[in-house]
Write a structure and sequence with these properties.
single chain; alpha/beta; Rossmann fold; Glucose Oxidase, domain 1; 2 domains; 7-stranded mixed beta sheet; 6-stranded mixed beta sheet; 29% helix; protease; hydrolase
Length: 311
């Protein structure tokens, strides 16, 4: 059994029924879910006012009786909080007794800040409402979440069209728009020789290209060992594009970058998503369009007695 503590640092959870379904699904699988009051908390479009949402994050420094911290949902909100997050206190706690801190989307900004300032590893993965509370839980997502948070080392495998290559380095990234929003701030990780993994939702291929070129022109991409592309949900081109699509965008990137660009990882806003520890060590091998990414060096929960079967 894992002890899961909820936080809601971003947008108000309009899908209240889904969030409750997520709580029920986790509870029925044998896990304890605390701090459920944040699910219904609301101020304007946010999951509570700035002070309440900031408290959610800073409270992690002293949180007891919990193994896993799970964000309720994304949406906009954490950018307002970044100056006041006590990341040194959270980092001190993580060194003593690490929590598994998991979320994605808007929460990526907090995760990147913690990585940039204190080298704190957090998990980019499913959230309560959108994933655990889906009408039908993805067995793939469930398996990969528990694998990531309980296994000191694990390997992801997928097939895609990509050049043969090998790369080792720090896994980092998350939501592409949030990553770009941190350029020029103190909270942009300064990672040399990393494996950068990005995803996004509701961004046209040209906007994805523009953000990736921004990272390239800022000198970040060619300092990495590889760029891995996750899912880009709802990014369909239109008639005006005349053949320009995600594949065309990827080819343009490959012509400009000195590093391998590897698409096709199930990672992002889809129901089917892996969980990645940001800041862990990764070993990437692409051979004959078969990719493996071995991950290690991240905090895990004690899996003795945990019920991780899919419900």
């Amino acid at each position: 059994m894992s002890r899961i503590h909820l936080i809601a640092p971003s947008g108000y959870c309009i899908a209240q029924e889904a969030a409750q379904r997520g709580v029920q699904r986790l509870t029925e699988a044998g896990h304890h879910v605390s701090n459920q009051a944040v699910i219904s908390r609301r101020f304007q479009r946010f999951a509570g006012d700035d002070a309440a949402r900031l408290y959610d994050i800073n409270q992690l420094a002293t949180l007891t009786n919990s193994d896993i911290v799970l964000a309720v949902r994304g949406g906009y909100g954490v950018t307002r909080l970044l100056e006041n997050i006590d990341y040194s206190a959270i980092a001190a706690r993580q060194r003593r007794n690490p929590l598994v801190i998991c979320g994605h989307s808007d929460f990526s900004a907090v995760q990147l800040q913690l990585l940039a300032t204190e080298n704190v590893i957090t998990f980019c993965g499913p959230m309560l409402a959108g994933n655990f509370g889906a009408p039908e839980m993805s067995a793939f997502t469930w398996h990969h979440f528990w694998q990531a948070v309980t296994s000191p080392e694990f390997t992801l495998e997928w097939r895609t069209r990509a050049p043969d290559c090998q790369a080792q380095g720090t896994i980092w990234g998350g939501n592409l728009a949030m990553l770009c929003s941190l350029l020029g701030t103190p909270w942009m990780p300064d990672i040399e020789g990393g494996i950068l993994v990005v995803e996004d939702i509701n961004e046209h291929p040209y906007r994805i290209e523009r953000m990736l070129l921004q990272l390239h022109q800022a000198g970040i991409l060619n300092r990495q060992r590889a760029l891995v592309l996750g899912s880009f949900s709802a990014s369909k081109p239109n008639d005006y594009d005349n053949g320009y699509d995600l594949d065309a965008m990827i080819e343009t990137l490959r012509q400009r970058l000195a590093i391998p660009v590897i698409p096709g990882l199930d990672f992002g806003h889809e129901q089917r998503t892996v969980t990645l520890p940001l800041g862990a060590m990764g070993s990437l091998i692409c051979d004959a369009n078969q990719v493996s990414l071995t991950v290690k060096g991240h905090p895990v929960v004690n899996n003795s007695g945990n019920n991780h079967s899919h419900r």
